[in-house]
Amino acid sequence: IDEFPALFVAACFAEGQTILTGAEELRVKESDRIQVMADGLLACGADVTPTPDGIIINGGHLKGGEVDSHGDHRIAMAFAMAGLCADGSITINDCANVDTSFPNFIEIASKTGLKVMSI
């Protein structure tokens, strides 16, 4: 279930509609991952609708934008990867904690083309 934020990002670039249900556990992780991801994806131009136990995502693309990870390392990493495919840049606030689950994330992600700037 921890991988779902990354799957939400992938669904934004897929054709058609992705519907995830039965994932209410996401609402009680380090953040309410369903709502935080929905808010961030909406800020980046996605067509998403959160539901009590999941999310509905209509595929297309992401424009870029500014998102808040709410201190959740998996949210921060998901939006970092979204930045590789979005039409514009994505600024992620409150993401210093990615070392929690992936100590070398910034170093490895930068090798894929991710541009990281600490503000």
From TrEMBL:
The keyword Transferase applies. Pfam families: EPSP_synthase. One of its GO terms (biological process) is chorismate biosynthetic process. The keyword rRNA processing does not apply. GO terms for molecular function: 3-phosphoshikimate 1-carboxyvinyltransferase activity. It comes from Leucothrix mucor. Keywords: Transferase. This is 3-phosphoshikimate 1-carboxyvinyltransferase. Its EC number is 2.5.1.19. Residues 1-107 form the Enolpyruvate transferase domain.
